[in-house]
Design a protein that fits this description.
The chain is mainly alpha-helical. The chain has one domain (7-118). 35% of the residues lie in helices and 3% in strands. It has 5 helices and 2 strands. The longest helix is centred in the C-terminal third of the chain and has 18 residues, at 79-96. It is globular and about 50 Å long.
Length: 127
């Protein structure tokens, strides 16, 4: 409830880690035309670098692993192993001064109690 203002679907770190860039049911021929993937962030609702850091990290690390690694199907991925690998990455983010969202939730300075945003209910689509 103290998370920053969500707009749209809220995607957790695990949601991003389980993202599959090749849509299910796509033919092998059509899938061969997928050359890459991208992670967009619209910063017009983020007032400063700290807010962008919070919204993007550590989700971007999960997205990078999905984009650059040969992973099994989303439901077979080792999220616990990914979380262990993130321990090292959190130390890197700390060293770089990135104001990421900690796994246990927002730090006091990152909280925004009472700011509701415009969240969408339900499971985010795989797009």
């Amino acid at each position: 409830e103290d998370e920053p203002m969500p707009i749209g679907y809220v995607r957790t770190l695990e949601d991003v880690y389980r993202f599959e860039p090749v849509p299910p049911g796509l033919s092998e021929e059509a899938a061969a035309h997928i050359l890459g993937t991208q992670a967009n962030v619209w910063t017009e609702v983020m007032e400063n670098r700290s807010r962008v850091d919070y919204q993007v990290f550590p989700r971007l690390a999960a997205f990078a692993e999905v984009a650059w690694s040969a992973l099994p199907a989303p439901e077979e991925r080792d999220y616990t192993g990914f979380e262990r690998r993130m321990d090292t990455h959190y130390r890197r983010l700390d060293a770089l001064g990135v104001d990421y969202r900690p796994p246990a939730g927002p730090l006091p300075r990152q909280r925004r109690p009472g700011v509701l945003g415009r969240p969408l209910e339900g499971t985010p689509p795989n797009v």
